[in-house]
């Protein structure tokens, strides 16, 4: 990689202008090496190292002491900034040295995650579905624009993975002695051996879990209370991770994770959820004239061969809506005269 490109990439990261893929690349790189690339001149490495530390401290809410007292060389605990990057990305509790060597407890708002989990990250691009084989031979299918984090080996009493964004279908290898846990925001899904689907896109207000086989327990964690739900095959729950309120639903097992084959199945799903699925599959941007339209409930099943136009025709017909397409921009509105 050219020196100029490396510096440009780092600069975008420090200024908060990097893409999610570039941020992941930088943080993985920094986490693995514990230092900045050797091809940078010494003075550039020193400057960028300090700037990187400032960004890290800002992300976890600590004052930027580097400005008040410039450091002339990397101290041992500064070199461990790699661990800080990985931990912040995972959302764990951290103990960092303060100005007077007093430990400061920091609690980021992200999901609480053990540091060991930051070993493997799998990301699907916007136009890609991916199948992942976990260390215990459990299988995971990732939907478009999804990110999964897991350890290189499940050596503890539990098998824990983190769906940081997106949707995934899990086929979990049975092991009663080592429960399998999927973490998403404030919601955990715990199983022994089963198959189920989890949807946790940041743009949606709910985290949804639906069971195809076996039995799962879904637990939502609030500041002062928790809420738990047990699900059997064909049952699902849509949980608001803030209010902990859950809405139960039923879904035919053949429709659960139908997205893996390119099909789309919705059972009384809000139009907002359907819009996200269409955006992911057809790579368009869909807006609505009236935000209230996003709450309209729809039940429909579409095959992988249905075009975007065919799906929009069906959805808008049911609710007396209309739509326009201009390139990759789609606008849904109420029909004129309604």
Automatic annotation (TrEMBL):
One Pfam short name: FecR
Gene3D superfamilies cross-referenced by the UniProt entry: 2.60.120.1440, 3.55.50.30
Keywords: Membrane, Transmembrane, Transmembrane helix
A single MF term (Gene Ontology): sigma factor antagonist activity
Residue span, FecR protein domain: 123-217
Regions that span the bilayer: 77-96
Cleaved signal peptide residues: none
Keyword Protein transport: no
Protein FecR C-terminal domain mapped to chain residues: 264-332
Keyword Membrane: yes
Origin superkingdom: Bacteria
UniProt name for this protein: DUF4974 domain-containing protein
Species this chain originates from: Deminuibacter soli
Lineage: Bacteria, Pseudomonadati, Bacteroidota, Chitinophagia, Chitinophagales
